[in-house]
Amino acid sequence: MSLPMLQVALDNQTMDSAYETTRLIAEEVDIIEVG
Predict the structure, then answer these.
(1) How far apart are the first and last CA of the chain?
(2) What does the pLDDT look like over 1-35, one tens digit per residue?
(3) Cα 4 to chain center, whole Å?
(4) pTM of the model
(5) Which InterPro entries did the record assign (predicted)?
């Protein structure tokens, strides 16, 4: 049985903030939505 994928949706105020958050969680998360 395969493991479920982990998806995170970000709602940061700026793209710079979203990029920084993405860099911090990228190794742990399968799908990242920014919007």
Answers:
(1) 32
(2) 888 999 999 999 999 999 999 999 999 999 999 88
(3) 16
(4) 0.70
(5) Aldolase_TIM
